[in-house]
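Schema walkthrough. Field components (list of strings):
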Amino acid sequence: MKRNLFALLSLLVLASMVLSACGGATATEPPAPAATEPPAPAATEPPATEPPAAEPKTITIGFQQEPTSLYPQCSNMTFAVWVGQMTNPGMWTWDGDNQPIMELAESMPNTTDGTISEDGLTYTYKFQPDLKWSDGEPLTSADLKFTWETIMNDANTCITTRLGYESIESIETPDDVTAVVKFKEFYAPWNNLFAMSGNSGAGLLPKHVLEGQTLDNNDFLRKPVTAGAYFVEEWVQGDHIALQANDNYFRGRPKIDTIFIKMVPSREALLAALQTGDVDLGPDFVEASIPDLENTPGVSVIAIAGSSFEHYLFNLDQDSAVGFCPFQDVRVRKAMILGIDRFTIADTLLFGKTRVVSNLWPNTPVENTDLEPYPFDAEQAKALLDEAGYTDTDGDGIREGACNGETVKLSFTHQTTTPNQLRADVQAAAAQNLLDIGIELIPDNKSPDILFAGFAGDGPLATGKFVLAGYTTSFIPDPDPAGSFDCNQIPTTESPDGANWYRMCFPELDAMMLEQKSVADPTARAKIFKEAQQFMYDNALFIPFYARLNVLGVGSRLTGLQGSAFGDVYWNVYDWDVVP
Amino acid sequence: MTTYIIRRLIQGVFILFIITIAAFGLTRKAFDPMAQYTLGRISAEDRARIRANLGLDQPIPVQYFKWLGLAVRGDFGYSATNHQPVSELIMQRLPQTLVLMVTSEVVIILLSVILGIYSAVKQYSLFDNIMTGLSFVGYSLPIFFIALMLMFIFAVQFKEWDLPYLPTGADIWDFSDPRELALHLILPVASLSIIQVAAYTRYLRSSMLEVLSQDYIRTARAKGLMKSAVIMRHALKNAALPIVTLIGLDVPFLLGGAIVTETVYSWPGMGRLFWQQAGRGDYPTVMAILLLVATAVVVFQILTDVAYTFIDPRIRLS
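Field assembly_structure (string):
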C-alpha cells in the first residue's frame, strides 16, 4: 500500500514535469494568423442564385450585454431590439432623418386615402405582394393577426408589454395583403404597433411555425424564423449569435454574407478588439469613451445625438413640505437656467459632439425648433433673483429670501446617479456656475436602483423626496409623455404608479396633453406638442441640458452606417458593406 | 471511516438546507426580477401580470418552499429572464468553465510545486530571492489589471509590432478545435495563475523549509539517498498537507468560474452567467449556481478530509 502510494506520487511528479514542459512549449508557440479567422459559413446554406464572391463578406459586432431572447417582445433589452432590426422587420421603421420608411407595408395608413377611418378607430394595413419568411414560406396578413393573438395570449408569459395591443378590438384579413385593424379606443401611437424600430421591437411572428404553440420555453426565442435581411443561424448562448444573409429578403440579398454578434462584456476588451480588428462594430460606449476611441488606431467613432436628453428637474410640488418653495417662482427657475453655462459643458465635457437643447423632444418630428436654448447670462440671472427677492443678506455668498412667509436660503441638494463620471463633472460645473450667482448646489448622488426605486421602494424621485434631480429620458418613438406632466399623475400613496415625477400641475398643460391623445392627424398633433414646448419654455419648467450621445466604435472595414433618432444604426443593415 | 463519511454527508445535507434558506432570502432581497421593468413603458397591468407569472406575488417563504420542492428533485425551474430551463443555461457554460478552470488549477499546482520546492531547496539563492520578490508583486496585483495588461501586450501591441500575437477572446472561434482552444486559453490561464502561483509558492516553500530541517531528512540524506529521492519521497509528501487543504478549498469554486477573467477575455463561463443573471434578478439561475457550488464545497471538504488520511497516516477520522 505504502509502496504503491510512493510509486503513484513519483509518477505524478514525473508526469507533472513532462506536462509543464509541454505547457511551456505551447505558451511560446507563435499563433498562426489563421487562428483569428472566422469559421467558414455553414455548408447547409442554400446555394445563391449566382455564385457568391470567392470570399464571403463577414463582420463581427461586439455586444456588451447578451439579449435574453431574440424575439424583442419577450425581452425588454435594447440589444434584443438591435438583433430584431437586423432580422425581423415590422410594417415600417424610421430612417436616419426620423422619417417613416416602409418595410413589410406598401404604405402607411392615412386619412387622405381613407385607410384610417373618420373616427380614427379603423386602420387598413396594405402589405407588399409576394413577401416570404426566411424559410421560404409566404408572409401574409394572417401573420399580422397571429402576431396580435400571440401577444394577447395569456399563455405567453414572456411578453413584456401589451401596451397598445390591448386597445385593439379585432383584426380582419379580407385577403393576403390586407389587414383591417379595429381599435376599441383611440390609440394615438398606433404606428408603433407591429413596427420594429430602435425603440419598439414588434416584428411579425410566423403563423405557420408557431400555430398551436406558446412562446415560453420555445426554441423559437433562440432561433426565430423571420423575414429580415438576415436570419438567425445559431445562437451559442454566452458566446455569439451567427446571422446569415436571407435570400428571400424583400429588398434582395444584403451585401454582407455573415454577421457575427460576439458577446464582449468588458468595454476595455471591446476597445482592444476593435483595435485588433476582431470586432468591426462596438455599440454602447459611453460619452467618456470618445477620446479613447478617437485615439485608437484604425477605429473611428460615431456619436449620434439622439432624442434622449439629460435634464435637471425641479420639485414643483405646491406643498412646500414636499416641494421647494422658491421653485414656485418662475424667476428663480429661469435664473438657474440662465446661470448655468450649458454651452461650455457641451463643448468640453461632451467634446462638442452634441447640442444644448431647449425642450424635451430633441431630434424628433414634434420638436419646436423655433425655441432657442436660453443663453448663458449670469448678469440677467442675478437680476432675476434680485427681482424675486432673493439677496445675500448675511454675507456668506448664498442668497436668501422670503417664501410663503418664511426665510429660505437658496441652498439645496442635487441628486443624480452614481457612479457616472460625466454626470459628476457636469454637476460640478453647474454647481460652480450657480455659486457664482449665489445659489448653493450640494451633490447628493445615489446609485440608480435607489434613485429610480418606485414609490413602494421609497425612491426619492417617485416619492418627491428631492429638491433638484437629474437624469436622462426620452419621449420616443411616440411623443406622448405618458402622463409625465399631468396633474392627476403626481405619485401619491393612493396612486403610487403616477408618472409625474416633476410634481407639476398646470391646467393649460394638462389640457394640451389630454388633447394630443385624441388627435389622429400627425401634423395637428405635432402642433399641440409645439405649443406645449413653448409653454414649458416660457415657464422654465426644467433645465434641459443636452441631447445624449449614442457612441459607437467602428472598425476601418465597415461602411454604410447611418444613425437613427433612436441612437442605433441597424435600420439600414441591408446597405452595410465591407471594404477590403 | 464509512460511518464517518455517512455522518459527514448527513451533516452536509443539513448545512446545504441552511445555505439555501440564507441564499434564497439574500438573493430575493438583493435582486428584484421586476427592477428591469421599472423604467421604460411597461404599464401597471403588464407589471402585475409579469409579477404573477413569476410567482412574485406570493410571500417569500412560499416562494422558497416551492423552489425547494422542485430543487430537491433536481428541477431548477425556468430562468426568470430567458424563458428556458435553468439547467440548459448552466449546462451550456459548465464545459467551458471547467476547461478554463481545471487547466488553470493544473498549471497553478504544477508551477507552485516546482517553484516552491526549488525556492526551498535553494533557500536565499538568487532564484529564491527573485521568486520571493515576484510573488509579492504578483500577489498584490488585482486580477482585472493583470488580465487587461496581458491582453494589451500580447494581443494588441504584439499585433501592432507585427509579432506573433494571441487572440483577445473577442474573436469568433471554434471551441471544439484543440489548436484554437489552446491559443485562446493561454492569456486567461496566465491571468488566473499569476496570483495563485504567487500565493501557493509561498505556502509550499515555507512548509518545505520546515520539513527539510527535520531529523528524518538528515537521516535519509545520511544513509546516502539521492537528493531527488529525499526531496520527492520524504520531504514533499509531508510538506504537501497544507497545499492539499488549499486545493480542497479551491476545487469546488472551479465550478463557479472566474467572473473577472471570463469578462475580460469574453469567455462564456459560469462566472459571467452568474454575474449577468444576478444583475437581471434571475433568481432561479442564481440559486442553482449557488447550490451547485455549495454542494461541491461540502463534498470536497469531506474528500479533503479523507485525502488527509492517505497522505498522513497519523490522521485518523472518527
